[in-house]
Write a structure and sequence with these properties.
Blueprint: E1 2-10, E2 15-24, H1 30-52, E3 57-59, E4 62-64, H2 66-94, E5 100-103, E6 107-111, E7 119-123, E8 129-135, E9 138-144, E10 150-153, H3 160-179
Antiparallel strand pairs: 1-2, 2-5, 3-4, 5-6, 6-7, 8-9, 9-10
Length: 186
């Protein structure tokens, strides 16, 4: 989905029309919900075993007595409680993730390349490098600047056509900033 509003950039020779473009950018966090449910099921299962166990436990070549088996079950319960905490914290951080990518006349609003997510505003004049990386079938566009880095993942766009349009558009806007002589490329 692209929303366009027309703006103008004036150079000394002519008027260049630039559209404000907003691209929908959503991460799929559905697997986190499944991981929470699985951790809850296994956590409750190990808690039940720890409370009701009266027998020994055999794991491959090891045999644990009933008390040792209870300790094992309680440790597994704590492990799954810890996993649930990590998954919930990841879900909270994911709520701070970018939901859109915006290209304005003089800067871009992009997802920050960070574990904690968020957005970063980078003027086209500050962009020093744009690189595309393809690992297996996953494509990532890394935008480098002294203000911070942005990482745009192709699969987070609504379609690959939107991603291709985004790459062309940001490359053209950076090139325009360079051509106008306002960019500080290294």
């Amino acid at each position: 989905m692209i929303v366009q509003n027309t703006q103008f950039v004036r150079s000394t020779q002519n008027v260049i029309e630039i559209d404000k473009k907003i691209y929908a950018y959503e991460k799929n966090n559905g697997s986190l919900t499944g991981m929470i449910l699985a951790s809850l099921v296994f956590g409750f299962g190990f808690t039940y075993l720890a409370i009701t166990n009266r027998a020994e436990l055999k794991i491959l070549f090891f045999t644990l007595g009933s008390r040792s088996a209870n300790v094992f079950y309680w440790c597994m319960t704590l492990l799954f409680i810890f996993a649930i905490g990590l998954i919930v914290s990841q879900k909270i951080w994911a709520s701070k993730e970018a939901t859109h990518v915006e290209l304005f006349a003089s800067f871009a609003d992009l997802p920050k390349a960070s574990l904690f997510g968020g957005q970063i505003f980078i003027p086209y004049t500050a962009i020093t490098r744009i690189s595309r990386e393809i690992v297996n079938v996953h494509e990532t566009l890394t935008i480098t600047s002294p203000l911070g880095n942005a990482c745009v993942v192709a699969s987070n766009f609504m379609s690959l056509e939107d991603y291709a349009n985004f790459v062309l558009e940001i490359t053209a806007r950076v090139q325009l900033a360079r051509d106008l002589g306002t960019a500080n490329f290294e």
